[in-house]
Design brief:
Elements (H helix, E strand, L loop, with lengths): L2 H12 L11 E7 L4 E5 L12 H11 L7 E8 L9 H10 L6 E5 L4 E4 L1 H4 L11
Parallel strand pairs: 3-4
Antiparallel strand pairs: 1-2, 1-3, 4-5
Helix pairs in contact: 2-3
This protein binds tetrahydrodeoxyuridine (THU).
């Protein structure tokens, strides 16, 4: 997986953000092991709780097309802010179930900041389906 290309796809996806309230655009792209890309952007709502973050949009797109966590090679999340936009708490919870623990998560900004992480690092002590058993 070429990280630079994945990030370029995520920046392209960011152009589709619908962020009339925050004016903060987020783009995301998931690359599958078979080479397929799925895109996501933040989609806001006047009822703010109805907003969907960019990374959730991208991972939901992959799942909606029949892919599952083992099929995912990496996720890129990009933003225009002055610092890296790490996933919010809701996204961390969602990603902890829909990604493998060590699947690379690439964070980048338009200004050139970059960090690679994974959900194990972003969300320790996870609550998951095992807790419901
Ligand atoms: N946002 C994301 O898309 N991903 C994150 O991880 C952080 C926040 C979006 C949600 C909202 O549209 C805007 O950024 C401001 O919170």
């Amino acid at each position: 997986m070429e990280q630079k290309i994945l990030l370029e796809h995520a920046f392209k996806a960011m152009e589709n953000a619908y962020a009339p309230y925050s004016h903060f655009r987020v783009g995301a792209c998931v690359v599958m092991k078979d080479g397929t890309y799925f895109y996501g952007a933040n989609i806001e709502n006047a009822s703010f709780g109805g907003t969907n973050c960019g990374e959730r949009s991208a991972v939901f797109a992959a799942y909606s097309n029949g892919y599952r966590k083992d099929d995912i090679e990496a996720l890129a999340i990009v933003s225009e802010g002055h610092r890296l936009a790490a996933p919010c708490g809701i996204c961390r919870q969602v990603l902890s179930e829909l990604l493998n623990q060590k699947t690379p998560i690439l964070l980048a900004t338009k200004s050139g900041l970059f960090k690679e992480t994974n959900i194990e690092e972003l969300l320790p002590m996870q609550f998951n389906g095992d807790d419901l058993a």
